[in-house]
Amino acid sequence: MIPGGPRNQRQMELMMRRMGMKTEPVEGVEEVVVRTKTKEHVFSAPEVTILTVQGVRTYQIVGTPEVRARTAGPSAPGTASGAPSAPTGPPEEDIQLVMEQAQVSREEAVEALFRANGAPAEAIMQLMTRSR
Question: Are residues 107 and 58 in the same domain?
């Protein structure tokens, strides 16, 4: 609830802009799937909006999900068994960030991220203090 009572759409957008908030609809979304260990929440034809606040992007999904149990079939393309595939390493964006900030090779960045338990800031700090 916003103090001062209901406002019109234009006033709301102006107020959000002043607060550093930006919304952006995602067009043409056919399906969104949220997977847990035991269930799948499938949103068919949802409304998806990206809300950016101080550089942090939050995805808002509006719709009615169909909740179903996870099947024994492959959960990702290329998965041979029914078990979910294990992560193969740190996210590419983290690797790139460490490479750029610490000015190291890809292999060094990946190794540092593993040592830092996937924390990019910690990996960068380790690499920067190591080189001195």
Answer: no
